[in-house]
Write a structure and sequence with these properties.
CATH architecture of the largest domain: Up-down Bundle
CATH topology of the largest domain: ABC transporter transmembrane region fold
Largest sheet: 6 strands, mixed
Number of domains: 2
Strand content: 5-15%
Structural class: alpha/beta
Strand order of the largest sheet: 5-8-9-3-10-11
CATH class of the largest domain: Mainly Alpha
CATH superfamily of the largest domain: ABC transporter type 1, transmembrane domain
Distance between the termini: 39 Å
Helix content: 55-70%
Number of strands: 11
Amino acid sequence: MSELLPVATTGRVRSAVQEMVRPHRRLAITGFGVLVAATATGLATQPLLGHIVDLVAAGRGELLPPIALLVLVAVGAGALTALGLSQVARLGETVLAELRERFVDHALSLPLEQVERAGSGDLTARVSADVTRVAEAVRGALPELARSGLTIVLTMAGLALIDWRFLLAALVAAPVQVLTARWYVRHAVPLYAAQRIATGAQQQQLLDSIAGAATVRAFLLSGEHLDRVGGRSRAAIDLTVRGLRLVLGFYSRLHVAEFAGLAAVVLAGFWMVSTGTAGLGEATAAALYFHGLFGPVNTTLVLLDDAQAASAALARLVGVIDLPAQEPPGRSLPGARVEVRGVSHAYAGGQPVLHEVDLTVGEGERVALVGASGAGKTTLAKLVAGLHPAASGSIGAGEVVMVTQEVHVFAGPLADDLRLARPAASDEELRRALDLVDALDWVEALPDGLATVVGEGGQRLTPAQRQQLALARLVLADPEIAVLDEATAEAGSAGARVLEKAIDRATSGRSALLVAHRLSQAAAADRIVVMDGGRVVESGTHQDLLDSGGRYAGLWSAWTEGRGRG
């Protein structure tokens, strides 16, 4: 059963944001300071319009000076707003970039076992949809929230400066708006958190069903998997519909607040002008001030929708960032050697898969691991490579690079894919590595050679070609020890023969631990270790094990007979 990665609390999200913004205090102060100046400048518009009303009402024609001032106010407010928003956007993008880097860095350092328990769908949803949601909020909601919030505060101050009674009338709308905001947040926070979880579960089910499509069809489980996908999709849709209903209720309440507040300000202005306690221009400015609040108040409250969704997404990102990273095991061993002593291992919640395993790989020695499926070969290889810490016992090893049967080709130029192993490698060094694993001919035959775009949306590569790229990366990385987990399994018979030759060349001169899919690969090794039920049951050269007539001899006999029949 999957165990989703954790989600941070609201308090922890708030403190995490403060931690990320703190190093950029100067930029934050500058940006918000300029926005304050821009907003204050723009709020001179309403008094100027009120003054023009007074001039017209008095029959005076001196309109040019206030109109010129209006133009200056508009130009000044626009310029300051652009500058302030650019500074706030710069702050947001800087913090967002650091958040991405911290999340990816931490996700890559998480224990592999924990990621596997959560399922790839949960982590995929966080690194894609959640990061996108936070990015959209930073680019759209953050600058608008900053400007709208400042406009609301300074407009209220402007109303108070005209006459405190206008401010009091405007505040008639406040209780409705506050209650609306509290009602919305109370319902939106858990709703959006549940929606993100449901989306992650939906993605995980889709990934599981698609990845295992062949097995699903073979066991006639298509209907069951469709039901599961449909169920999780319906759950996500139901939450989305609930969100839409929540937003509709939110807007309807805001309209009530706008009507009540504007009616109160207009009635207050009518009474004050009638009694001579305020001029027509002042009443006009007050009404314009309140009408000008419609946009920023509604923007602020509407952006609560984006803010809550982004907050839920950010909580999922911070939840991963706060997880303790896997500490590299103390496994350094001088020379290109591997020493496994008394290692036992069990995955979380499962039965032990290794029992008191002892294994030594000498300098320059090639050791093949063979055995039936489930014997513990891959688990032992992962422990030696450092992908999992051993539950008990000790593992000492030099520098290790692992190549598995599932090779990922990154989107982009093929040369960049290879340089993951050695960023400073020249094109000539890349060609030498490719030539060593018999891949140079087909790479140079590609449309753009090393510059050909591969991976998602690029040139399609066969399983054998992907493995050759992985072996070329191994050559470029030049580790002391190579661990290969069934690196020929996906290539087919013809491709496997090519890869066996490439593996021989790539591991020449270095220690190697090979999980052998084909026994011909094991036969060429310096030593063969046979595993069964998580234990080492035989060890020796190919000929010694055949002569002993044990488990390996039986495996070899069955394999050669199968090849003969094929």
